[in-house]
Design a protein that fits this description.
The complex is a heterodimer.
Chain A (H helix, E strand, L loop, with lengths): L15 H4 L2 H17 L3 H17 L4 H25 L3 H6 L4 E5 L2 E4 H27 L2 H10 L4 H30 L10 H32 L18 H25 L9
Chain B lengths: L6 E10 L7 E8 L4 E5 L6 H9 L1 H4 L3 E9 L2 E2 L5 H4 L3 E4 L12 H11 L4 H14 L15 H13 L5 E5 L7 H18 L2 E5 L3 H4 L6 E6 L2 E6 L1 H6 L2 H5 L5 H8 L22 H10 L11 E11 L5 E11 L3 E5 L6 H9 L6 E6 L2 E2 L5 H5 L2 E4 L12 H11 L4 H14 L15 H13 L5 E5 L7 H16 L3 E5 L3 H7 L2 E6 L2 E7 H4 L3 H6 L6 H8 L5 H17 L1
Parallel strand pairs in B: 3-8, 3-9, 6-7, 7-8, 13-18, 13-19, 16-17, 17-18
Antiparallel strand pairs in B: 1-2, 1-4, 4-5, 9-10, 11-12, 11-14, 14-15, 19-20
Helix pairs in contact in B: 4-5, 4-6, 5-6, 6-7, 15-16, 15-17, 16-17, 22-23
Classes of the chains: A mainly alpha, B alpha/beta.
Chain lengths: 278, 569
């Protein structure tokens, strides 16, 4: 329906990325994420970021699909940067051991070291986002569940995650309908109302939403019980695939990237940080 | 019948822990392998509880106290758990939409196998072979939401048949299905029965629809007791249906109006088997004496749609060039299959969505600039599921909500709420919590909460969905009362009885276009409209031909007129 409802929707297409098994994608995602999280070397982070944007292009994800998520993430990153600057404006100097001041903000000195540290950190966060989006948008919820189960997450928890993703659009639709019908009864949620009233009024939507969602839950849980769900300690998955050559390749590549980043830190930088100031 | 019964109830009594009285009393019942059984009964009769006892949801999900014995395949069920039972008896729940666990047809069918740790290759092989049995093998990779109603039913069916169960239990398979899909569902069940010879148990209150195909035995349950166990011909000839408040087939009602005494020999269980030689003359005489009712509504227009077109995404049209004119005081139904645009139409009327083209008039005034809140004072919408509307624990507060949000003074609110509660028959419950009400009463609360705003037009989305005959009649007679008070009523529905009995006029949508706007009797006898809108020809039409009456449509209209006169007397 509208864009909001497509926030997390799985993108049906047939690309090399879509063809990888969910488990492979999850492990690759974790490898690459660990790589950028471990290393504070902006060269590594940028390389991974370029690589993942390339992958996004390969998996035919359009910008319009992820625009909303990108906006949220940007807001988060910027807020994070501002706050961390005001809390520890000297952190960069502590890490890199030098201090090159070039400006003052509200009496706090801004150093190249601090700037460099914060830019590095921003790119670290920013480079994880395309990876996460690729994983979410190219893995259907069932495969997602089976891959979670594949790395050792309890299958009941895994299915719960998958069902949540599955029914998310339905519940959003319910929410939308309830919202409109309550609005017809005179509900005002705009900023015109006082904060307490707005809180009270939003209950008028949340309560029916909870009850109608509980109806859904009862039906689906009965349906699952009747077909033997949770009978055994383990279960198999219809969607799980045998690892193909491409899967192995993807695992090896992302594994190598991870090892390479660790090596860069250990042998070249001799620390997790890349220090251009000495 | 010399074989061992597959299901055996002996002095079986069940009482929910939350209830003061047993829901099932001292049941004695034997069902034999390969039989096809229909269990009918009004809401609250215990028929669903009976189903839950069979498939193990009692005591697994719903707890209570059991006396007596229930054996399946000779094994006492109290010694089995729900998982062991699910290997013998497969359950297809109502509303296949809300019970899909898988994202694709194949995955959904495989669910039981996944839980059994069946390895991948074998799982795929078995899914394919079961899918073939229900003709779904070419659609294994489709999403359940892309399927037609019939295909959804087939998928659910395959999902339980994959365990090679001996008994198939259908819990209200027709609820929420449009008439054509319901008919298909009954055919699918019958085909599976014939092919596999499995024992089939159908729990349903839409008797006539189930009797579209053969049934070996019909059990009538009322008040937790089996009060009849007979075949269809004997049942429709007996007074039991009337006594328990189950709707008899429409053609049987027509026979009774024509003062034909329905006997077992007439084989009236199915319209196809009915022997009309006993009733032909009586039907013709009765038909000849019906006085046509006056149908012209000459009152001014209250709501008019002019060339309305709408699309959610700007690409796929949902409504195209819709025109209609509804007169003051009318009761109209809007029908069409799922996705035909019925709900969207009501959203446009309420201002929830904005039309792309065209205009909507209320008493000749363009509604374009009216906000949702303003329109709500003219047009009230009652949603299908009362739980989607109720947000207060107490009836009084729920009904008063719309007025409070409009800052109406509290003294006036009291007056208006009391008045509406009286009209809706809710006055005795005013201090009750809503959670203590039945579904039908909750529905009334939601209608009251809209009526209190004093709208001139009331739109109801599937007001009678899932209701048995008694509650259906209650809700509809209540709406007639409201209608007589001067409120124009628009019903969005695919209940054909509702169209025939309550709305003289029906607007039919298909593929976002209006394909008919005429008397219900014409709609339900026009083969093309029926096919396009997923309706079903009314059995009255077939009856008229069997009785040698040429003009079937006129006969149906005659039936409607006769019945209306009977009710108004």
């Amino acid at each position: 329906m509208n864009m909001k409802m497509k926030l997390f929707s799985y993108n049906l297409a047939d690309t090399p990325i879509h063809r990888l098994s969910g488990l492979t994608k999850l492990i690759c995602f974790l490898f690459l994420t660990f790589a950028v999280m471990y290393s504070y070397d902006i060269r590594v982070t940028l390389a991974v970021m370029v690589f993942s944007i390339l992958l996004m292009w390969v998996s035919k994800i359009r910008f319009s699909q992820v625009r909303l998520m990108v906006i949220y993430v940007l807001i988060f990153i910027v807020t994070n940067a501002v706050i961390s600057f005001f809390f520890s404006p000297e952190y960069g100097t502590t890490i890199y051991g030098t201090s090159h001041e070039f400006a003052k903000i509200f009496g706090i000195s801004l150093t190249y070291e601090q700037l460099f540290y914060q830019v590095t950190k921003m790119f670290k966060y920013a480079s994880v986002i395309p990876l996460g989006m690729i994983f979410l948008l190219t893995t259907n919820p069932s495969e997602f569940a089976s891959s979670l189960n594949g790395i050792g997450v309890n299958y009941k928890a895994a299915i719960a995650v998958a069902l949540t993703l599955r029914y998310f659009p339905d519940i959003q639709r319910d929410y939308h309908d309830i919202y409109l019908s309550q609005q017809a009864r005179g509900l005002e949620l705009s900023s015109k109302a006082k904060f307490f009233d707005r809180f009270k009024n939003s209950l008028l939507i949340v309560i029916p939403l909870i009850f109608s969602t509980l109806d859904r839950v009862e039906v689906i849980s009965n349906a699952m019980d009747l077909r033997g769900f949770s009978k055994n300690k383990t279960r198999t998955w219809y969607t799980s695939r045998k690892l193909s050559r491409q899967d192995v390749l993807a695992l090896v590549v992302s594994g190598l990237i991870f090892i390479a980043t660790v090596c860069v830190s250990v042998f070249i930088n001799q620390s997790r940080f890349y220090n251009p100031f000495i | 019948m010399d074989s061992q019964p597959i299901i055996e109830f002996t002095n079986f009594t069940f009482q929910y822990f939350s209830q003061a009285e047993p829901t099932l009393h001292d049941m004695n019942l034997n069902i034999y392998p390969g039989q096809k059984i229909l269990i009918v009964g009004p809401s609250g009769s215990g028929k669903s509880t009976l189903g839950h006892c069979l498939n193990g949801l009692i005591p697994f999900s719903y707890r209570g106290e059991v006396h007596g014995s229930l054996k399946i395949n000779g094994v006492e069920t109290s010694t089995l758990d729900i998982f062991q039972l699910s290997k013998v008896i497969g359950t297809v729940l109502q509303d296949s939409d809300s019970q899909f666990v898988g994202l694709t047809v194949g995955e959904d069918i495989a669910f039981a196998l996944e839980n059994d740790n069946v390895p991948g290759d074998e799982m795929h092989r078995r899914v394919r072979s079961v899918a073939q049995m229900v003709d779904m093998d070419t659609l294994l990779t489709s999403s359940p939401f892309e399927l037609s109603g019939g295909q959804k039913q087939r998928t659910s069916l395959a999902g339980v048949m994959i365990d090679d169960v001996e008994i198939l239990l259908f819990d209200e398979p027709l609820a929420n299905l449009d008439p054509a899909t319901g008919k298909t569902a009954i055919e699918i069940i019958d085909d599976i029965h014939k092919q596999s010879g499995k024992t089939i148990i159908i729990i349903e209150h839409r008797l006539e629809d189930v009797l579209h195909r053969d049934i070996d035995r019909i059990l009538v349950i009322d008040d937790g007791r089996i009060i009849a166990d007979m075949d269809a011909h004997a049942l429709v000839a007996s007074p039991i249906l009337k006594e328990t408040g189950i709707r008899e087939p429409l053609y049987v009602t027509a026979l009774k109006y024509a003062e034909v005494k329905v006997t077992e020999e007439m084989r009236a269980g199915h319209i196809e088997t009915l022997k009309t030689e006993f009733s032909r003359d009586a039907l013709q005489t009765w038909y000849g004496h019906i006085q046509p009712a006056d149908h012209l509504n000459t009152r001014p227009s209250i709501l008019k749609m002019e060339d309305i077109s709408f699309s959610y995404d700007g690409i796929r049209p949902v409504l195209t060039d819709i025109n209609f004119d509804i007169h003051e005081g009318e009761m109209v139904s809007i029908v069409g299959k799922n996705g035909a645009g019925k709900s969207t139409l009501s959203k446009l009327l309420c201002g929830f969505e904005k039309e792309d083209r065209g205009r909507i008039f209320y008493r000749g005034k363009d509604l374009r600039d009216k906000s949702i809140k303003e329109r709500a004072e003219i047009i009230g919408l009652v949603m299908q599921n009362p739980n989607q509307m109720i947000s207060n624990p107490m009836i009084y507060d729920e009904v008063a909500l719309g007025l409070r949000l409009r800052q109406v003074p509290e003294e006036e609110i009291t007056l208006r709420v009391d008045k509406v509660l009286k009209i809706c028959g809710l006055a005795p419950f005013v201090d009750w919590p809503i959670s203590a009400l039945s579904y039908g009463q909750k529905k009334r609360v939601t209608i009251a909460a809209i009526l209190v705003l004093d709208p001139k037009i009331l739109i109801l989305d599937e007001p009678t969905a899932g209701q048995d005959f008694r509650h259906y009649t209650e809700i509809m007679e209540f709406l007639v009362k409201i209608n007589k008070l001067g409120v124009t009523v628009i019903l969005i529905t695919h209940d054909m009885h509702l169209m025939l009995e309550y709305t003289p006029r029906a607007i039919v949508l298909a593929g976002g276009r209006k394909i008919a706007d005429t008397a219900a009797s014409v709609v339900l006898t026009d083969a093309q409209v029926i096919a396009e809108a997923n309706l079903k020809e009314t059995s009255l039409f077939a009856l008229s031909h069997m009785a040698g009456i040429e003009d079937g449509t006129q006969f149906v209209q005659g039936f409607i007129d006769y019945e209306r006169r009977l009710k108004n007397r």
